[in-house]
């Protein structure tokens, strides 16, 4: 089954004091183009994360984000640093006595405006337990993205099979016009020679020239090769993952055969069929760009 390069995944986990969020999304790209945004606490694990994502996702323009939502205690109130408040209080008292400056009339207003009073300073370290939980969240988000890719891939495969069947039908519809085309060429040349009464010609030589001319317009080889390419495209669809580039190459070969059919057709109805084939193939080429 094929996979699309388009995908999205998100997962979260709750801790007593925080919420871990992981979001990952991908679009089509010729190679892996990975962008990582990660919370400072997990920065030391960035290379490990990159290697893991590269190994699993293979191709695509991938945006990965890991961030933390902190839960504040006391219903979200900003904590007051009591130790720092006491220190500021003692310093202000000492300066007032030493310099003779009057003490503030509103102590609370003064102290609460002092630097860092309304914040707490804490050193955070990543524990093995938290990283194990974060890894689970990351793997879950990547799993969701892969599931999304598979769903998109199934839709693409259905579309490809429909387009390949259309090309088969169009190729079969060429056959009735082939004999008609040869007869018309013979008739046109014979009529032109009959109108030229004064010209004497060798009918055997004319027949040889007609055969040579018609052989140059023969499209049996192109039809056979195109038919083989169509079958190979379907076989590749059913093979292991990572067929995107291969399908692109097959589509290019199909285009060459269709172009040759158009240049050799020399028939109005066949030209119309070739235009329809080109339209179907163009839709295949556009969608192949999304295949992993």
Number of domains: 3
Low-confidence segments, given as residue ranges, are none
Mean pLDDT: 84
Q: What is the CA-based Rg, rounded? A: 37 Å
Distance between the termini: 11 Å
Number of helices: 8
The H/E string reads EEEHEHHHHHHH
Structural class: alpha+beta
Q: What general outline do the C-alpha atoms trace?
A: rod-shaped
* Overall strand count: 4
What's the main sheet like? 4 strands, mixed
Q: Which strand order do you get reading across the main beta sheet?
A: 1-2-4-3
- Residues in helices, as a percent range: 55-70%
What amount of the residues lies in strands?
Answer: 5-15%
Walk me through what this model shows.
- It comes from Bacteroides graminisolvens DSM 19988 = JCM 15093.
- The chain has 292 residues and is an alpha+beta fold.
- It contains eight helices and four strands.
- It has a four-stranded mixed beta sheet.
- The longest helix has 68 residues, at 128-195.
- The radius of gyration is 37 Å and the shape is rod-shaped.
- The model has no long low-confidence stretch (mean pLDDT 84).
